[in-house]
């Protein structure tokens, strides 16, 4: 796919980009090259290929989903300036 000058200008307008007139042919060539690569990738038969979350075969280290902290809610609510029905009361900051 090859982009015309007018298409590059239209894309730049939609993206709110100011292009130098002298650079438009270079952008047309580079964008056409990118679109060509996308066309090439779309033509690859990926039937039967499992989607991947990462290009390398790595696994995220996970920790067990277990509570490690003690429940100190009562302790924190005792030292809070104002508490009502288990909720912290704070001054209104937005009218």
TrEMBL record:
Function: Allows the formation of correctly charged Asn-tRNA(Asn) or Gln-tRNA(Gln) through the transamidation of misacylated Asp-tRNA(Asn) or Glu-tRNA(Gln) in organisms which lack either or both of asparaginyl-tRNA or glutaminyl-tRNA synthetases. The reaction takes place in the presence of glutamine and ATP through an activated phospho-Asp-tRNA(Asn) or phospho-Glu-tRNA(Gln).
Matches recorded under InterPro entries: Asp/Glu-ADT_sf_sub_c (IPR036113), GatC (IPR003837)
One biological process term in Gene Ontology: translation
Keyword ATP-binding included in the entry's annotation: yes
Family of the protein in this entry: Belongs to the GatC family.
Protein name: Aspartyl/glutamyl-tRNA(Asn/Gln) amidotransferase subunit C
EC number(s) on file: 6.3.5.-
């Amino acid at each position: 796919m090859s982009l015309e000058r007018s298409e590059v200008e239209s894309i730049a307008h939609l993206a709110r980009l100011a292009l130098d007139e002298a650079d438009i042919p270079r952008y047309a060539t580079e964008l056409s090259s990118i679109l060509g690569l996308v066309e090439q990738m779309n033509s690859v038969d990926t039937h039967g290929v499992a989607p991947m979350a990462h290009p390398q075969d790595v696994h995220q280290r996970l920790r067990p989903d277990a509570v490690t902290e003690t429940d100190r809610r009562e302790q924190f609510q005792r030292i809070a300036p104002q508490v009502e029905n288990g909720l912290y009361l704070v001054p209104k900051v937005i009218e």
